[in-house]
Amino acid sequence: MRLILLGPPGGGKGTQARLLSEKYKIPQISTGDILREAVKKSTDLGRKAKEYMDKGGLVPDEVVIGIIEDRIHDADCSKGFILDGFPRTVRQAESLGKKLEELDLTIDAVLDLRVDFEEIIKRLSGRRACGECGKGYHIESEPPPKEGICGQCGGRLIQRDDDKSETVKKRLEVYQEKTAPLKDYYQRTGILKTQEGKGDIQSIFRNVCRLIENL
Ligand code: AP5
Questions:
Q1: What spacing in Å lies between the alpha carbon of 202 and ligand 1's midpoint?
Q2: Annotated active-site positions, please?
Q3: Complete domains list, the chain, with CATH
Q4: Does pTM top 0.90 for this prediction?
Q5: Which of 9, 33, 38, 194 is 20 to 30 A away from residue 162, measured at CA?
Q6: Could you report the per-residue pLDDT of 97-118, keeping only the tens digit for each?
Q7: Residues 6+ apart with CB under 8 A from 95
Q8: Is residue 55 over pLDDT 90?
């Protein structure tokens, strides 16, 4: 099974992708996570990406397209994958389409998680992640057992730089301009599925699984 998770920043793509990856035993491929890891390690890619990420902009298409084209060849993708945060522009979607065609593969569904602006702000301002193992939390909806400390490894929880309010505003503008048009793009190919993204995480997950199993 090959899936794309669409949706605004904070829409719950990462949260649902992790649950889906566990249930269906296929990898979650998050360009955001790959880029953050590169920033953390201060690689050439990381240094280049950081400039854009810190401002809430998109990393250039050719950079992320290259990352995905390499990643989908890995052995763990042979039974499928979940793309989380890619594609994010029509150009990225077109390149992905071409690449999959070359490999004689298709995308089974594009899942658009719908969440309103107010909820996004609440989610991103409360999001925290472990600086050691990367496990994600939310101070209200998924709090750690002990404030500021990861329940999995005991690491310190940190806030993503791009979750600060000014950068969130920019990310939302970029989403509207560059990524929202992908809904029409995939609607035309008949594989777009829309799912209400507000509500209990497990209920959303059950609905998403139902959508997938009915494909
Ligand atoms: P990326 O990491 O992809 O950020 P994003 O798309 O803005 O998405 P988020 O990770 O913020 O949100 P999410 O939808 O995964 O929500 P989550 O599940 O975490 O990208 C970061 C940057 O990298 C970009 O700005 C760009 O610069 C660059 N980049 C990445 N991909 C790129 C590409 N393809 N092209 C160019 N540049 C690219 O949930 C958010 C919070 O809400 C969490 O705390 C969670 O616990 C909570 N939550 C989740 N679901 C619920 C729920 N149902 N109810 C209550 N709380 C919930």
A1: 18
A2: 13, 88, 127, 160, 171
A3: 2-27+74-213 (3.40.50.300)
A4: yes
A5: 194
A6: 999 999 999 999 999 999 998 9
A7: 61, 65, 69, 87
A8: yes
